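<backbone_tokenisation>
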Amino acid sequence: MQLTIEALTGPTFAPFGEIIQRPAQASTASGPGWQWWGETTLLAGDGRPFGIGYLQLQPVGLRFDWAERHMRSQELLVPIGGDCVVYVGPPEFPDEPARLPSLERFRAFRVQEGQAVLLHPEVWHGAPLAIDSPLNVVVLLFEQTGSVDTSVVRFVETPVELDRIDG
């Protein structure tokens, strides 16, 4: 199967989460050498503290053969040092956390440096993919999400290939 990597826009990404980037409106505060936009989006809490993860990416090909989801937790992905591709699948089958939607229902988005994505609970996803060069991604999740709120499905026999994009 093959997917085309799409430009990241609010309407196209809305079913999966929110885009976080410099807002179009004037900053709420500024000073010499800085501008601030407070609370551009909110990360919902459920009583657990947040954990901050650090993900190092190397370009190894634009394909994926696994996906995971968190039924109760949002996940914030912030690329640092370059652009990456985030693949996502719809939050279908909420009563069956390990049931993967059809791979044809997945989409892939280019997240540019300076943007971030906040994934909704139940959205299928995996580690972002480096496009051309190594980069890092800061990941924000609730504490112990990986051990208490994660379903992983592997499909190594039917990997998804991503079409290369320009720009």
Remarks:
- DSSP finds two helices and 16 strands in the chain.
- The two ends are 23 Å apart (CA to CA).
- The helical segments are 10-13, 145-148.
